[in-house]
Amino acid sequence: MKSTNISTESLFDLFQSRRTCYQFLDKDDVPVDDTKINICLQSAIWAPNHKLTQPWRFWVIGEKAKVKFADIYADNRAQKKSLLEACCYDKFYKSAYDKFMAIPKVILVGQQRSKCKITQKEDYAACACAIQNFQLMAWQQSLGVQWSTGPIISDSRTYKELPIEFAEIELIGALYIGNIDDQCMGNVAPKRKTLEEVTVYLD
Description:
The structure is a single chain. By secondary structure, this protein is α+β, with helices and mostly antiparallel strands. The protein contains eight helices and four strands, in the order ααβααβαβαβαα. 46% of the residues lie in helices and 15% in strands.
């Protein structure tokens, strides 16, 4: 069995310190190193998965491609907000478009769909593990990640741009990634239930 040099304390500290980040350092001033992204992706594909189905699929969105996805993202956000303020679609659209374009790196994550419902559930769990691997490795490299399940991943236009068919691959997340802002680093850990509250020991 291969041993590891990572101490129990260091690994536990990594688990405890990771945060979801919504603010990143400016992508032009502090660009995200593509080597770090590839290390995160390599970490993701070592997640546990039933029967080695390896159901995860990743799309790393470049700056040119991001323009098309920014339009889809902004349209969804603007349509939702303009239900309350119908006159303000353009304002909401521009704000959302600029917000998406400011995200340093965007990766879409998909799950290869199985015809078996049990395998589908197992594969979703595997993909979630892959995303957690990605997030932990990102945090270790001072990169913040937000795992979003917003409407961009269910929009038919997104599938068309990739291009993929829903019957074959289902998008399960958009990862928004960037160098960590001090605001994210300073986030107080959300209160967790105690181990005693969620654990039952049976003799």
